[in-house]
Known about the structure:
Blueprint: E1 4-11, E2 16-22, E3 25-30, E4 39-42, E5 47-50, E6 52-57, H1 70-79, E7 82-87, H2 98-111, E8 115-118, H3 134-139, E9 146-147, H4 157-168, E10 173-176, E11 189-190, H5 193-198, E12 202-203, H6 205-222, E13 225-228, H7 234-245, E14 250-254, H8 256-260, H9 282-294, E15 299-300, H10 309-312, H11 329-337, H12 341-356, E16 373-383, E17 402-412, E18 415-419, E19 422-423
Parallel strand pairs: 1-4, 1-5, 6-7, 7-8, 9-10, 10-13, 11-12, 13-14, 14-15
Antiparallel strand pairs: 1-2, 2-3, 5-16, 16-17, 17-18, 18-19
Amino acid sequence: MSVVLIKGARILGGDPVDLVLRDGVIAELGPGLRADGATVVDADGLVALPGLVDLHTHLREPGREDAETVYTGSRAAALGGYTAVCAMANTSPVADTAGVVEQVYRLGQEAGLVDVQPIGAVTIGLAGERLAELGAMADSAARVRVFSDDGHCVSDPRLMRRALEYVKAFDGVIAQHAEEPRLTEGAQMHEGEVSARLGLTGWPAVAEESIIARDVLLAEHVGARLHVCHVSTAGSVEIIRVAKARGVRVTAEVTPHHLLLTHTRAESYDPVYKVNPPLRTDADVTALREGLRDGTIDIVATDHAPHAAEDKECEWAYARPGMLGLETALPIVLDVLGDQWDLIAERMSRAPARIAGLDNHGHDLKVGAPANLTLIDPTARWTVEATGLASLSHNTPYAGMTVPGRIVATFLRGVPTVLDGKVQK
Ligand SMILES: [Zn+2]
């Protein structure tokens, strides 16, 4: 087993300290440490965070290995400072059986760069008609605890209620893509002044808010855990705030792009800005940032959604929704929140690990903790290049943008997955 000596890292931006990583854990922590035969990493000026955890990643394997694979997505994740990602179920075949979730889990182990935790589908084939084998997926080697039809909404309230009841038995959670489908038929972008001007069919905020309002009431009624994917409107933040005050077991995520970009991007007709839920208004962005700061929104999740060129470099109306996110999430959050390292660690590591039930992730960097961590140069600024990212796809909305914060190194159970900004596999 390799030994790593990290010299002078600032844990959560604190005073410089040395760390010895041995046997998968942080074995020693303090000033002036030595370790014979260790790989020495000079972390002068670098900030150490617990390895990031993404609750919402599309890895596209099985089925669309031309857009991303578990391996290439794992590389992108490690380069983004992640040590665990939860892989969404909308693959082909859909991850709605023990067999498929075990396949994804195994591919993640083979890639060996991040822990890939499969998410199971709520309904068979994401069709929204019959519950998938939730228990079999929970009992499988992949130990699924998060279930989602993401990409589709579980819009049938009776089915949603039954799913919540089912996962309560093993403290699972239903992660809902909140979109009332009857209100978004043919939708191309946020419904508002820009969609009206461009003549594109709108995706109204109420389509998201009405499902969240319904689901928090169902979760309260059942006493089960609900997680709301990619919250995008001010009204949604308000509903979740009220639900939490009532004691509902609800958690919520926001994506980096919804924290930064707005619907005016659609004026370019560049499909790189087409995403579901769509980019919203300045007022929504302000409310999302406020919700993230005050804890109404628990986590940042990437909704990393790679798409092959033919699905993205076409007319707006035909383009698939979705954006890359893994390699740019931390820089965008740093840009939005500033260097509030403890808050960033909570929203991007501890809380997502708790929600997903990933016991080996999201730990504070202390002696005895799993050696899952990332080192960031907070002063570095870099310009995002679509073809410079590790993802197989190039649909980043940040191309050409200069962002703060560069991930220098990432460690998974004490083994470097990224060193000097380069992935180790
Ligand atoms: Zn979604």
